[in-house]
Amino acid sequence: MLMDAAADTIPTRDVAIEGDTTAFIEELAGLVRLAARRGDLVVQAGEPGAAWSFDWAAGVITVDPDDLGSLAPDLCRGLALHEAAHAAVTVLHEFLTRDVLERLMPLLNVVEDIRIEVWMRERFPGAAPWIRAYNDVFYGLCRRQPPARSRQVQFLRGILELWWYGAVTVGTAPDVTRALDGCRDAVAAAVACQPPTDDDRPGVRAAQRSMWDIVRTRIVPVWERLVALDRRDGMGRVAAEETRAFLRHMGCPSRSGRSTVRMLRSNGRAFGQRPGRPPSGGRRRSCRPTADAAADERGDAYHEAWRRVAAAADRVGDELLRRLVLPRGTRLGGAARHGHASTAGETACLLQWNDAHGAGARRRARWRPDHGRSAATARP
Amino acid sequence: MSLVADRVQGGAAVTRAVRDAIDAVYVQRVQPGPDRQAVRTALRSVGLGTDTTTANGAC
Asked: What is the ipTM of this complex?
């Protein structure tokens, strides 16, 4: 069992937690608040075997306590980060009506999940192994499922499989394969509408709108054509059942507003699952698209103060350190930062370090003699 | 910053020095237990964890 340093007692990576998971839930709560920069997010344990879910309106992530005790902690942390990413940058509910969301959510969620995963690799570079781990498990499970009978669900699964494996499951209908080929560029373009990695809320919304425009004009017509073909062939009921099953695995809002998410449990030991402990349920990710735009703006005074001064303070600190101590061209990793924190809630500012991968990297470029001025000033 | 500078001038690798400084200046000021673990995990998630194996991308 690998442990973090110092006074912490929670296993960090490979082996599932035995016994009381209360402290781990508290850790996940702190993690999602830090990652999403939303101090209002709450993580709570649901009923054993229940789905993980995210209530967008209330800012509550519900987790299955059985999963916490049977899967590798880093896998759970990766999923928590995925939820945090949705909380941070998925804002479809801010400009789409509930009817549109419910009608298109299976498709929107597929594209959005890929977009989120790509964003997470940039935003949480250290979490890439966690993300890869749960996706390997999830997509491995998907591949072991029999092919969907309906074209629309084959299409949804195909988008995900093309992204992760580069190929679709054997048995995918030819017209679905053609549809996937026809949408490949559109999906890539939608995924490329990446949110900024900082607190640029207008940028987050703009990226989401751009993604929606591409999906609406280039992917939705294809998907709806497949839906119509399913209906023509008398597969409406089958398609509905398969779509519900797909939503249970993937996580899309239902009419009740509570949605279910990816199922990552498998039969057997996977990613730190304790030997001999049978899987009891599913890991599912979800979102609840009830509009609550104001929630994004919440924040305590500390956070607000940080937003005002942190960037300037960091620039001054980095440049002083570079000029006085380090040779030119040395990467600081944005680490020489300011601040003092006493609780996880107060340390939301710590995630600013990741900004070094964006604005910080550009600031560093200013000091490289081989870089032109234009590159350094592209985004002050 | 001075802590980082001292360690780097003393011959420590920059990455290691920065991570140690983060731990000393920030993490150790967070109350022990879940809060501190959350901060550690957040740092790991952005590649600044004190666990170098994880920071290097191993799982």
From this structure: 0.77
